[in-house]
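Exercise: predict the structure of this protein bound to adenosine monophosphate.
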Amino acid sequence: MRIVLLGAPGSGKGTQAQRLINRHQVPQISTGDLLRAAVAAGTALGLHAKAIMDAGKLVDDATMLGIIRERLSQPDCANGFILDGFPRTIPQADALAVLLAELGCPLEAVVLMQVDSEQLFRRLTGRRTCQACGAVFNVYTAPPSVPPPCAGRCETPALFQRPDDSEATIGKRLEVYDAQTRPLIEYYGARGLLARVDAEGHIDEVTARLEAALGGRP
Ligand code: AMP
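Solution:
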């Protein structure tokens, strides 16, 4: 399986990728997670990216290309991958096509996760992550009074809110999505790669629709 999950921030790309990786035995490649790890480690990349991410803007294409080139050349991508959060601009999509052609493994599908903007806002403001295990959930669907889903695994589930999920930054991120990432819908549609999935409703229903859209791809 070699796919891209495309969609606005909060459309559930990361959550659904987590579910697909177990079944399909391919890695999830989240450029947001890679950048957050660099920020946490205090690397040069992290220092470069932090202010840009906190402002809800996009890290430059050349930097992102370098990250994705290195990640896709790792052995665990030999059987495929699920790209989550990349590409986000037309130049990134062009460069990805060139890179995958070089590696001899073109994309099989791009799935657009469709969620209306009111829902997106609610999902983003309610999103919390467990510091210990990285599990992501939502205060609206799983309020803090309910033990988080990682309670059995993590000795000390400690929830935090991503700095860029503040109300002030969410508006900017959705604006950036509309201006820079939304054009990829037409881009991949024109190349016959686009599938659309209704990404609202229960998480299990969305997974079922996603699997159906992928048409039983191994
Ligand atoms: P995400 O976790 O996918 O929402 O990404 C968090 C932030 O990381 C984004 O708001 C951007 O600042 C940055 N980022 C992640 N992926 C990319 C990308 N492909 N191109 C540019 N910036 C990115």
